[in-house]
Amino acid sequence: xxxxxxxxxxxxxxxxxxxxxxxxxxxxxxxxxxxxxxxxxxxxxxxxxxxxxxxxxxxxxxxxxxxxxxxxxxxxxxxxxxxxxxxxxxxxxxxxxxxxxxxxxxxxxxxxxxxxxxxxxxxxxxxxxxxxxxxxxxxxxxxxxxxxxxxxxxxxxxxxxxxxxxxxxxxxxxxxxxxxxxxxxxxxxxxxxxxxxxxxxxxxxxxxxxxxxxxxxxxxxxxxxxxxxxxxxxxxxxxxxxxxxxxxxxxxxxxxxxxxxxxxxxxxxxxxxxxxxxxxxxxxxxxxxxxxxxxxxxxxxxxxxxxxxxxxxxxxxxxxxxxxxxxxxxxxxxxxxxxxxxxxxxxxxxxxxxxxxxxxxxxxxxxxxxxxxxxxxxxxxxxxxxxxxxxxxxxxxxxxxxxxxxxxxxxxxxxxxxxxxxxxxxxxxxxxxxxxxxxxxxxxxxxxxxxxxx
Length: 454
Ligand SMILES: Cc1cc2nc3c(=O)[nH]c(=O)nc-3n(C[C@H](O)[C@H](O)[C@H](O)COP(=O)(O)OP(=O)(O)OC[C@H]3O[C@@H](n4cnc5c(N)ncnc54)[C@H](O)[C@@H]3O)c2cc1C
Known about the structure:
By secondary structure, the chain is of the alpha/beta class. The mean pLDDT is 87. 56% of the residues lie in helices and 11% in strands. The strands form two sheets. An eight-stranded parallel barrel has the order 1-4-5-6-7-8-9-10, surrounded by eight helices. The structure holds flavin-adenine dinucleotide.
């Protein structure tokens, strides 16, 4: 039995039904996002640990690259360190040995990167993304736009990012007025849901976010974040603050909770933060958030939206901890992250309407668990949002929408150079031996995919 009396066996049975229903609704021909034509890179990376390590190092230099040619040069450099490269990589490196070859390789890399990027990135600017956002909306799928370009190094970059966010809010909110009515996406038990939704990163709003001096970073980001909150309120848009690696977690959490408790933001805007289930201390973080909803954050016009994710920085956290001789802050067994995700899902759903809940996952088991638990609790399905990433979660998003449930796609926007770190992170995450999507692509049977984490 679980806490509120829902029997485990009953929950598993309902979860299986929901999972089968969702799997049956996956659009034909889109069942395996990782089997798409341009997935050769993912396949190669999943087979080769050294290649993967080279890609990780490549991500680190990406922010310093100024052009695609620059990127191609670094990429061949890193791939050159792989002892026994798989054949396509070896061919690429041979090409890199001559001037003509380098030019051809640069062009090929640029084309390949562009092709792959278009799966994950909806446009080079918010304006260029509007067509896709409208199409998604017409198809019953809401969106959250993310402006690519992480971790700023200078004040002018941080200012530029804040200005781009301001412009994105205005562009999306302006266009969204003309979208057709979609009641399932616009209203839940707590009230109206904004059509325009932007996800922002605090590390891009300040160059000063450092674990050794968190107050400086918080203080520096606060004014820019306040400006964006005011703008979102004025435009009736939702502002979501993403969570990054653990070294900034406490500063980001404190910043968000402090700002949203300020009197000027009591009436809006609608806003949210992210809880990462791979962190061992995430249940305590949820305690902090729940205390806030009952204390300083009580009585806000829009309940805080909590997006639950497993977490995108797993390898980084493991390596960082090993380098310092610390014990890892993340679970090291995948099933522990999955189980914690389910426990947090239940707690979040149990604490509505103090919170709005968004479950972000491409794992059919994790998603079916949330829907099944909510159904058994007798929840109103409008009070559960499911979220997926553009390019990875498109089939699942379509299946969720086809069930009449609310789904939102996270849509990165930006140029390809800015998008490289994001792209490679998605590539690495999904070539991991412990990724649900990789298992699904390998053809693991549905019953196994939906089985309890172990
Ligand atoms: C809409 C949306 C928004 C997102 N926003 C954020 C964000 O703000 N911050 C953020 O960090 N992430 C964010 N993510 C990314 C998210 O964290 C990853 O997509 C997610 O971790 C993949 O999980 P899954 O449930 O889809 O897949 P699964 O395949 O079920 O899970 C993979 C995840 O399990 C964990 N894992 C893998 N191996 C192990 C192991 N050995 N031990 C323990 N745990 C392991 C990792 O977190 C890995 O990413 C977002 C995702 C979505 C869909």
